[in-house]
Design brief:
Layout lengths: L7 H10 L23 E8 L2 E9 L4 E2 L8 E2 L2 E9 L6 E7 L15 E10 L4 E9 L7 E7 L7 E6 L9 E5 L5 E7 L4 E7 L6 E8 L6 E8 L2 E7 L10 E5 L7 E3 L3 E2 L10 E7 L5 E7 L9 E10 L2 E5 L18
Parallel strand pairs: 19-23
Antiparallel strand pairs: 1-2, 2-5, 3-4, 5-6, 7-8, 8-9, 9-10, 11-12, 12-13, 13-14, 15-16, 16-17, 17-18, 20-21, 21-22, 22-23
């Protein structure tokens, strides 16, 4: 088992949620096809061929607070980036640890003592490589770099290349986005998390081109999740309150680089003012043209037991909303496995 303290009673009760090919309940323990808890926090999903690949932080069992840090800096040692595969977004197979820590080199940016968060993967059609970007930091979060790794396969192993401050600026919470034209962008919180940068990547997706924009200066937005709908670009973000929940916001633009119009909280329903006690991590396009907002419900003092919340994104003349639902498939159209489309 991934979590040694999970009781057999809890396992049985949670496994029952999966019966009948129904998606698990938001906020419950989600199990993979081997009935182990899914361990893929701060993650993102890449669709490649007829398969979805979910990458995330593989949290270790021990959560502790970093000493001499002013905020509530709870963390686990870096134990790897995990990958799960699915053709229906409901049944997930554990593919293993696709980026492993470098335990032999204490100065490595992916040593177990380092912070590695929010891994996201995109495929480069020209090079045939799968490229992973992630937030890499030291224990007090002052390194503030973005790391990049590459693989020939979506299930790894990924080879770590480097960690840098993109455009010579701090980089913490991040995501990566591949547009319709094949260009890719790194979106990251910078300047003490006060400003969100959008930076165009080189054609191989491994470096920065030097072309970037500064967005929401002084607004302190993090946890970006970006997607494109009807020719417009949307970014969901959270405020900056450490592990504690806060009110989400979203922004819209005609160009991926901006300028963006920052708009109020899109969440509706119970606890919407706290983003359902969650934080955004990714926005996933679905085969029917709709979108799924992915969130983490963090447990700061027991991070491996943090939960997942996935919710459908709705659009109207008034704008975008993310209504609460216990099960995202309740309001999402038919999820026929990709191989059967």
């Amino acid at each position: 088992m991934n979590r040694l303290t999970l009781t057999l009673t809890t396992l049985f009760a949670t496994a029952c949620v999966w019966a009948g090919d129904n998606a698990p309940v938001n906020g419950d323990v989600w199990l993979d096809t081997s009935l182990n808890p899914i361990n893929a926090h701060g993650g993102g999903i890449m669709r490649h061929g007829d398969t979805y690949y979910w990458y995330g932080e593989y949290k270790g069992e021990e959560t502790y607070r970093s000493p001499d840090v002013g905020w509530e800096c709870y963390r686990t040692d870096f134990t790897g980036v995990s990958c799960y595969s699915s053709t229906d977004l409901i049944n997930w197979k554990f593919e293993g640890i696709v980026l492993s820590p470098d335990a032999e080199n204490p100065s490595s940016d992916i040593h177990p003592t380092m912070v590695v968060e929010r891994p996201k993967v995109i495929y480069n059609d020209n090079t045939g490589k799968f490229v992973m970007w992630m937030h890499i930091d030291n224990a007090n979060y002052w390194q503030a770099t973005a790391g990049v790794a590459v693989s020939d396969s979506p299930t790894g192993p990924f080879t770590f290349i480097e960690a840098v401050r993109p455009n010579n600026a701090e980089s913490r919470d991040l995501t990566v986005y591949k547009d319709d034209d094949g260009h890719a962008y790194l979106i990251y919180s910078s300047e003490g998390n006060a400003t969100l940068y959008i930076s165009r990547l080189t054609d191989d997706y491994l470096k920065q081109t030097g072309v970037f924009t500064r967005n929401f200066a002084g607004e302190s937005r993090e946890a970006p999740a970006i997607f494109k709908h009807n020719g417009k670009y949307y970014i969901i973000t959270s405020g900056c309150s450490g592990w504690s929940p806060n009110e989400a916001a979203y922004a819209v633009a005609d160009n991926v680089m901006g300028p963006y119009q920052l708009l109020p909280n899109p969440c509706t329903g119970v606890d919407a003012d706290k983003t359902f006690y969650c934080q955004s991590t990714f926005a996933l396009p679905l085969p029917d043209g709709s979108f799924l907002a992915m969130f983490d419900r963090w447990k700061k003092d027991d991070l491996v037991d943090s939960r997942y919340v996935w919710l459908p994104i709705s659009f109207s003349e008034e704008g975008m909303t993310i209504p609460w639902s216990e099960n995202w498939t309740d309001t999402t159209p038919d999820m026929t496995p990709l191989s059967q489309e």
